[in-house]
Tail specific protease domain-containing protein (Massilia oculi), 364 residues
Amino acid sequence: MSVKKKFVAGVVSGALLSFSAFAGEDALLKASDRAAIVQTLAIKLNANYIDPAVAERVGRAIAAKHADGGYASATSVKAFSTALATDLRELSGDKHFGAHVNDAFRERTGSNQAPTRAEMEEVRDWTTRRGYGIEKVERLPGNVGYIDLRGFGPTEFSGPAYTAAMGLMEGTEALILDLRRNGGGSPASVAYLMSHFFPLGDQRHLLDIYNRPENTTTQFWTVPTVALRYDRPVYVLTSARTFSGGEHCAYDFQAQKRGTLVGETTGGGSNPVTWFSAGHGIVVAVPTARATNPVTKTNWEHVGVKPDIAVPAAQALQMAHVAILRSLVSSAKDDKERKNLQRVLAMVEKGETEKPVYTLRGES
């Protein structure tokens, strides 16, 4: 199986886990069951977590807590998985760790790494029902484009939707890309979206991901076959909730000097995950890979992506819109256009919106 297909399988696994039924959450665990889960977890951590020293330290700390009776009150599968997720994040400092219950989960190893046709159709349905992660596409006053993007689904489904959304933005003077509630997803889909923001023929190397269990490095570049290109200014909105692939996208705009980031420092999670079974239906997300930006030679793990213009997330859209309008006012060559932009700017600065008119001209 190719490395790129393994990334697809990982994205599909994450999507399937996000909407699968958790039938065994209330199942009870004995002390011996918890001990077996802790032992299995330590083995999976040591073999797969991106930082072996941290994996060993975290595994020992969880085993010691169990030996001291620290998990005695976690008598159900759900309670134990919740406790493990909290401890994995706090002990490692890695926010990508997670754990929940899914009796149907099976690890993708060997010949079963590729998602089945039925799984792909299920993910396609899930992706389309959520608008490919595109929550809103709008033309704001002053002919400013706006896209609210909540996640990066599998590229084969989401890629055409990104191009369709960008097609509606083609005639705008500038674009605001809202990633404030973007929790991440496929790095290949981030690269596909980014491809719209560089001239044809200008191919950019965006990210390298080293996978520890596979001992492989995958490069992510802009996609030369993306035909629609957008050459106007871009403002990217961020928040403390922007995470993982959402951060990757914001980081790319900043590192490639293609956009201005407005908002808050992001969540600080750059290590991609693989899902593993710890037993008794508990599924653990273990960060198995490390992302490296080829421009900065580092990533946003622990530190987040810092905005160029720091404002509370709730004010980021207004701030970006005002900045764009001020630039448009200063560059306007036509007096009528300038006066209209000044009117719109004054309105946006006050936080006001134009009221719709539903009567014909001349009617009272």
In short: The longest strand covers residues 134-140. The chain has a mean pLDDT of 93. Residues 31-93 form one domain. The chain has three domains: 31-93, 118-274+287-312, 319-350.
